[in-house]
From TrEMBL:
Entry-linked Pfam families: OGFOD2-like
Record flagged with keyword Transferase: no
Oxidoreductase keyword on record: yes
Domain of life where this protein originates: Eukaryota
PANTHER family: 2-OXOGLUTARATE AND IRON-DEPENDENT OXYGENASE DOMAIN-CONTAINING PROTEIN 2 (PTHR24014:SF4)
Cofactor(s) it depends on: L-ascorbate
Keywords, ordered alphabetically: Dioxygenase, Oxidoreductase, Vitamin C
Gene Ontology terms, MF aspect: dioxygenase activity; iron ion binding; L-ascorbic acid binding; oxidoreductase activity, acting on paired donors, with incorporation or reduction of molecular oxygen
Protein name (database record): Prolyl 4-hydroxylase alpha subunit domain-containing protein
InterPro entries according to UniProt: Pro_4_hyd_alph
Prolyl 4-hydroxylase alpha subunit domain mapped to chain residues: 155-305
């Protein structure tokens, strides 16, 4: 190695230039982190990704596409799919991806082989299955419009009417037709997984949902035990109820740490579901159904999920303001601190 008179290494300009280029390239690579816009492009029409082999469902990608930066909106579907998958991969576990794939395969097998009794049910025309009062509230989309149709008989449990009576009747006939087809073809009807999540509800945007129907009572499924659900928010609609029993009981919202703690007296609440009514509650609101003494009941369940909010659990404070036990422990801790300060003041004065 030769040193010039100015104490620079011979060829230093070239080496410095190469080093600068390498550092610039490394910085560029480090900065090339996929990012979304804060606000959606409401005029953009999202593509369908059903035919692409991607980790995430088409419904999730279609919702996310409206948040893509402008330079990505004009890209082809493969590029957009990869861009969004890289982002989602940071927030959704592999197990959740595998579960979504299994559900997608399950639905495809049904749609390819099952012949519906009422094909109109699958088009989901709002005028055919939603009540006018509910459609009006959705159309106005104000707090006042929703308060007109929703009551809150217990904190965190909201009740309202949603569907047309004819929709219930056709849906139950369709379910019986599907059950008969499954029996004749030896098709296994899957039940929802009892995987437990305890996410805080942080907003109103859900990137996926999972719907199913339950029937309990004579010659049907066993009644649902005490549980929480794989959802941020759960919609439960009573389709029919014949006989007695089957009341829904609630025993307080809980975080993962306090799942097995006893409920406080003020957290007990029993709700008698009525055909035609819907209730909404948090998935982490512990609940179950009392025994159906005789007869049958049918309910339609929709789990609404948000993967981003689940990731935010990592950054939760010591006490969650939505967990009944956390709130109780926080108040106890504050009382202990105040009592200690009071004792210290008494000691100083004496």
């Amino acid at each position: 190695m030769m040193v010039d008179g100015d104490e620079t290494v011979e060829g230093g300009d070239s080496q410095s230039s190469d080093l600068l280029q390498m550092n610039t390239a490394a910085a560029t690579t480090e900065m090339a982190i996929p990012r979304l816009n804060l606000f959606p492009n409401k005029n953009h029409i999202s593509d369908s990704y059903d035919d692409l082999e991607l980790e995430f469902s088409s419904s999730i990608l279609r919702s996310l596409e409206k948040y893509l930066p402008m330079d990505m909106l004009t890209a082809n579907r493969e590029e957009k799919g990869k861009f969004m998958s890289d982002i989602l991969g940071k927030y959704i576990s592999r197990e959740e991806c595998s579960q979504a794939k299994r559900r997608k395969t399950y639905r495809q097998e049904i749609t390819s082989n099952y012949q519906p009794r009422f094909k109109g049910l699958y088009k989901l025309d709002p005028k055919l299955f939603l009540l006018p009062s509910f459609r009006k509230a959705i159309s106005e989309n104000t707090e006042e419009s929703f308060r007109r149709i929703i009551s809150e008989p217990f904190p965190g449990v909201f009740v309202f009417k949603m569907f047309q009576p004819e929709f219930f009747e056709k849906l139950l006939v369709e379910v019986e037709n599907f059950r008969k087809w499954a029996h004749e073809t030896n098709f296994t009807i899957r039940r929802p997984d009892n995987t437990i999540f305890f996410p805080e509800v942080c907003g109103t945007m859900f990137d996926s949902h999972y719907g199913f129907l339950t029937e309990n009572g004579e010659d049907r499924d066993a009644d649902v035990d005490f549980h929480v659900e794989d959802s941020e928010v759960t919609l439960n609609v009573c389709l029919s109820k014949q006989g007695e029993g089957g009341e829904i009981f609630f025993e307080g919202t809980r975080c993962k740490k306090h799942m097995d703690t006893d409920p406080k007296p003020e957290e007990y609440f029993d709700y008698c579901h009525i055909p035609g009514q819907a209730i909404i509650h948090r998935g982490c609101h512990r609940h179950g159904a009392r025994a159906t003494t005789f007869g049958r009941r049918a309910n339609m369940i929709l789990w609404c999920q948000n993967s981003l909010f689940r990731e935010m659990q990592t950054y939760e404070p010591e006490f969650s303001d939505w967990c009944g036990q956390c709130v109780h422990e926080m108040k106890e801790k504050e009382s202990q601190i105040l009592a200690a300060k009071r004792r210290e003041l008494i000691r100083i004065e004496s």
